[in-house]
Amino acid sequence: MKTASPGRQRGVALLALLAVVMLAVSWILVSRLNAASRASSAARRMSNAEVLSQARQALIGYVAKEVLDLSENIPGRLPCPESPNDAGTANEGRAGSTCDPTDPVNINIGRLPWRTLGLDKIVDDAAEPLWYVVSPNWVLGSATPVINSGSSGQLNVDGIGNVVAIIIAPGRALSLNPNANQIAAGCTARNQDRSDRSHVSTSLNNPNYRDYLECENASSPIDATFGTSVVDNATNLVLNDHVVYVTAADILNAIQGPVSERLQRTVAPLLSEFSGQWLAPPGRFLPYAFPFTAPENNAAKQAHCGPSPAAQQAEGLLPVAPTALASSGQPCSSAWTDINISGTGVTNPVCTSSPSDVVTCQYTYYGYTGPGLLLFQGILGFPPSADASATITASALHASASFRRPLVASDITVTAPRNTTMTFTLTPQTNGAANLSVQLQTPGSDFCVNDPVRGLACDVLLPLHVTANTVTVTFPSLADAVVQGTQLSANVLASSPPPYSLLNPPSNQPHYWFIQNEWYRYTYYAIAPALTAAASPACTNPGDSGCIVVSGFPLANGSTNDKRFVLAVMGPAVTGQTRGTTALLSQYLEGQNWAPGSPRTFAYQVYAAPGNPGNDRLAACPFSVGSPPVSVCN
User: Fold this and answer.
1) How many CA atoms lie less than 13 Å away from 449 in the CB half-sphere?
2) CA–CA separation, 113 vs 106, rounded Å?
3) 159 and 194 together in one domain
4) What is the pLDDT of residues 180-204, one digit of tens each?
5) How far apart are CA 567 and CA 270, in angstroms?
6) Of 447, 477, 507, which marks where a domain is finished?
7) In the 8-state DSSP scheme, what is residue 290?
8) DSSP 3-state assignment of 250?
9) Residue 56 counted as domain residue
10) Which domain range does residue 517 map to?
11) What is the DSSP letter of 560?
12) Which of 82, 96, 220, 492 has the most CB atoms less than 10 A away?
């Protein structure tokens, strides 16, 4: 057997050594490439995180700011994505006027409306504008949303629900070829093509979200599920989206302060004005509350009525139920009941109520003719008769436990053949009703009166010596409250002229947002004892025992201890609160706001703090602004 020469052996050794060196160099190069890739990925994430955070803050700030725009009838509403037709034009960055998941163009996914949000055109690390998804129930679409503290988001990200908006940095275009695991996770093969109008000015094509987003973020049609990662992405890149999201709680906590301010500006002054309608100055009256019920019970607006008869309920929810015809079966009708008529010197008194709840009462009195007066008072010496008088009484259920417009003199029509005076009183009752008393009097000394002595003489003497005179009185049922805005500020008045329907406002009236979005479900209503039908104890001066105390009330806006009513806006649930159909008030208000006391005391603002979470905000009256102070809710 031949033995290899020493030179050949050295050559083999050198080759082996060279192979080892090359492997080492390759390992170092790969390690450095991986490290560079990781560093590049980390840098990309940091860059995108910065612009995504900026966009997220701008979105939340924009929504909070819009709450105070009196023309915004859906406070908390999110803007739609950029109108697709604006991409790549001078108008790009504007929010679409409407969006809906089923709309062929203006769907609820598109580019971020940076111009509407007051931003410069911010882009991600690939120089691509950000994309944006919005929950369909928080935007204008096929249906008008209702947004209040109970509203939730319909989107979810990585299994986290209650999301109302998602902002996405799309990254560079990819050629997607997902494996079986990735296909099962919602990815589809696609060569992303971005030659749309946003990149090519001559293109007629709008941007297609599937050419910018991937996997769950690009489902077709768009659905409610989104994600930030996918299986095997490290070895087979099919997703390079970076994502931030906004929850319903993020928005609701941000708008809590602005909502209470708008409540102070547009609702509280109307309630304060209403409080002066029922009683002669300086008396004030507000209706009893609808007993607190968890908003999750979805009590109909028609049910928000203080019951009658009822325990005197000075706190609860606003009694915003409108009235209804007695025949409607609605729970808060204020049609007249227990109608009676009686009198002196009158006959045939009767009252009826029409299908439209208009009450008509009639009675008859007799007057002597000239010959009759000569015969009976001149020749026979009958004494002059007393005036003819009548009293009508009736009761309106729920009238002191709901917002009803009190009758005024012009509402009561009296038809009589001679001068008949009419006076009336309408008084709130502690059982939740209001009692009406109408007094009518026809003066004179020429009346013929049927009495036990003369029997039916007046009837027998008709028509030569006596004439029959019929008096007819009509009055309507109590209507829903109407106010004139006498305590609204000038800029609020300028947004819509009076009169204002308190319970059923049209869309141009300043408090429409409150009724339309059902904030009355999430607004706690408390009135001072002095303003209830009981009217005691008094609340005339600061510190009176019949007033409500609001601790922390801004000194610039008045005293802390003279409040006649309080409206407390309930925010989203805080740590430790569990809400549901059987939940108590303590699961909606925090601190002293849910705890009764004497004197009743509320906190003007309840802030979240370690061990003491809270987010309540208040509106209250009296409330003043400016220097010298001007009352906008007295």
Assistant:
1) 19
2) 13
3) yes
4) 999 999 999 999 999 999 999 999 9
5) 13
6) 477
7) B
8) helix
9) yes
10) 267-306+314-319+482-633
11) S
12) 82
Task: Indicate if the alpha-carbon torsion angle 140, 145, 151, 154 is positive or negative.
Answer: negative
Given 249, 277, 294, the domain boundary residue is 249
**CB-based contacts of 532, cutoff 8 Å, min separation 6:** 285, 286, 288, 312, 314, 430
- At position 228, the amino acid (one-letter code) is T
Tell me which amino acid residue 63 is.
V
Pairing of strands 617-621, 565-569: antiparallel
Determine what percent of the chain is predicted with pLDDT higher than 90: 71
Angstrom distance (rounded) from CA 79 to CA 150: 20
Number of domains the chain is built from? 3
> Do 624 and 525 share a structural domain?
yes
Is the domain of 66 the same as that of 154? Answer: yes
Which amino acid, 342? S
Residue-wise pLDDT for 87-115, tens only, equals 999 999 999 999 988 887 889 999 999 99
Asked whether residue 129 falls in the same domain as residue 157, the answer is yes
User: And the tokens for 514?
Assistant: 């409150």
For the purposes of burial, counting CB atoms within 10 Å of the CB of 556, is it exposed (0-12), middle (13-18) or buried (19 or more)?
exposed
With a cut of 90, say whether residue 138 has pLDDT above it. yes
Evaluate whether residue 626 is within a structural domain: yes
d(CA 378, CA 199): 110
Residue 517: pLDDT band with limits 50, 70, 90: very high
- Is 433 in contact with 306 (CB distance < 8 Å)? no
Taking a C-beta distance cutoff of 8 angstroms, is the pair 479, 277 a contact?
no
Closest residue by Cα to residue 147 from 158, 139, 157 = 139
Q: Is the peptide bond before 499 cis (omega within 30 degrees of 0)?
A: yes
Shared domain for 472 and 489, answered yes or no, is: no
Contacts of 420 (CB under 8 A, 6+ apart): 414, 440, 441, 442, 471
Q: In which band, very low, low, confident or very high, does the pLDDT at 16 lie, cut at 50, 70 and 90?
A: low
pLDDT in tens, 302-342: 999 976 555 678 999 999 999 999 999 898 999 999 999 99
In 3-state terms the chain splits into helix, strand, coil percentages (rounded to 5) of 25, 25, 50
pLDDT of residue 469: 87
Encoded tokens for 589: 């208000």
Residue 97 sits in the same domain as residue 193: yes
pLDDT above 70 covers a percentage of the chain that reads 89
Q: Quick: pLDDT tens for 598-617.
A: 889 999 987 655 566 789 99
